[in-house]
Hints:
Layout: E1 2-3, E2 14-27, H1 30-42, H2 47-70, E3 75-87, E4 90-102
Parallel strand pairs: 1-3
Antiparallel strand pairs: 2-4, 3-4
Amino acid sequence: MILVNTDYITGKEFEMLGLVKGSTIQSKNIGKDITQSFKTIVGGELKAYNEMMNDARALATKRMVEEAEGMSADAVVNIRYASSAIMQGAAEVIAYGTAVKFV
């Protein structure tokens, strides 16, 4: 499966199959949430939240790819990511793009 954030793949012609997406909602446990809130006092990277978001993007991408594979796609083009806060300490991440089949 080829994944790109452009609307083309050099040297490939394809037909569009449709929109595919994957999403997840992630949160940290209360202990990590408290330690990260202390970090905001002194500043610096919030590593636990960074890891949470990286894991969320990976899971959303995996789910998007699974949906594309269900359509017998060869690639997903024009991939985008979006996130939003659902509640304090929890975020939704969505990955979406266009599933395509090579001709």
